[in-house]
Design brief:
Elements: E1 6-11, E2 21-26, E3 38-39, E4 45-51, E5 57-62, E6 67-73, E7 79-88, E8 93-99, E9 105-110, E10 115-121, E11 127-133
Antiparallel strand pairs: 1-2, 2-3, 4-5, 5-6, 6-7, 8-9, 9-10, 10-11
């Protein structure tokens, strides 16, 4: 949920190529905020995070496309695709977290390349790569930040 009790769901569409999307629901009960999911034309949307500070942006990993998309999300929960490819990640990105006092950093784990990639958030929703941790254990999963 974002600050306005909207539930946001990533839609992997069974991993079909170029079919990923994100849908915002008000209160989780009253149906979608929009008529349709907001497509990003990527593959296998997976994990998402909502950055409430420094702009209201949502980021979603696309496991089949090896990248991260960004959306702006307004006070009513309406989504707008900002960048279909806000950043290129390692292979098979899955989990993602926000870090920093102002949520200025995004980190994601890439199960296919056994890496964690770090990005700084830009004011327009784009991401800039700042770090990478290599040689994670095979099948490493889960990511937390504090």
């Amino acid at each position: 949920f974002n600050n306005n009790t909207n539930l946001v769901v990533s839609n992997a569409e069974g991993g079909e190529e170029n079919k990923s999307s994100v849908t915002s629901y008000y209160d989780g009960l009253n149906g979608p905020v929009a008529d349709r999911p907001e497509k990003n034309r990527q593959t296998a949307a997976c994990w998402l995070v909502i950055a409430k500070k420094q702009g209201n942006y949502l980021y979603v990993t696309n496991t089949g496309s090896n990248n991260i998309s960004s959306y702006s999300i307004n006070e009513n929960g309406m989504l707008t695709l900002t960048y279909a490819i806000a950043a290129t990640s390692g292979a098979e990105p899955t989990d993602m977290v926000l870090s920093g006092g102002d949520q200025e950093y995004v980190y994601n784990i890439n199960s296919g390349s056994q890496t964690i990639t770090g990005f700084s958030r830009e004011a327009d929703g784009n991401l800039t790569k700042i770090s990478q941790i290599n040689n994670l254990p095979l099948y490493a999963a889960g990511l937390a930040a504090y």
